[in-house]
Amino acid sequence: MAPEPDVTSLSNPLATVEQLSTSSSQLDGVPPDLENSLRFAGAQLTQAAGILLRLPQDIIAQAIVIFYRFYVGSEGGSFRINALKDVSAASLYMTAKISFVPQSTRSVLNVYAYLTSSTSPLRQPSETSAKPNPESYYLSEGSYQSARATLLQTESILLRALSFITQVTLPHHLALTYLQTLGVLPPTPTVKSTALAARTLAYLNTGLFSPQLLYLTHQPSALAVAAIYLAAREVGVRLTSAEWWEVFDVDREELGFLVVGLGSCEGWIKGEKGRWLGKSCPLTLEELETEL
């Protein structure tokens, strides 16, 4: 008898309503709007660090989801206790370590030292040095050893908070499979099919920055279907007239919610950047305390 397929590999543990309603950060006095900004800043920092380390996008995306999971719920981490830069670094280091592209602690810490310095492109122009200043992100041996200890300690805190559940299934490959199933991704790519696939993946990547934490509240299959729906409408590809999303176990109500959520991400990101115009979102505990 053939073994039954393991469907758990295509799903993720989702956040509960209770976890989404209250967080440790809010209990520690962080306003919800600032908490959303801190999550966004942490995701941006993780993305930038992954790019500088030349990690594949799927590894970076998994690290961002792990970062989000840590700060969810009253039993999770708090931005006032666990610095987002440390949790971001630990999430990326841990995710890369169990992949085929592990990174050394020195490489990770050098990148984060640069990205949190005054020279960083993540800083607002008014806060960035006129000329690159290597001294602002140079890690001496003593500083490196201290930062390494913090990184490894944060990794252990992260693992305990997640109950050692580090599995993250992404919707990207599922979305491409669904496109093939729907017959709109032929073996020989066309201009329109290429554009459709690109826009689908773009929506999924943008969704990683959603303030609604869509990757923590919905399964990969639902995210893939919503991204396909939006991309097909934008590119002008006509899908089957039947309610095709039900084939992938997604109902109309969930699809509608995700279409609105994914579709609003770009506008929210622009608004978030406008909110911090002229200054940077806090990346360290000291900066957060100053902001509060």
From TrEMBL:
Residues spanning the signal sequence: none
Lineage: Eukaryota, Fungi, Dikarya, Ascomycota, Pezizomycotina
Protein name: Cyclin-L2
GO BP annotations listed: regulation of transcription by RNA polymerase II
Superkingdom of origin organism: Eukaryota
GO MF: cyclin-dependent protein serine/threonine kinase regulator activity
InterPro entries per UniProt: Cyclin-like_sf, Cyclin/Ssn8
Residue stretches spanning the membrane: none
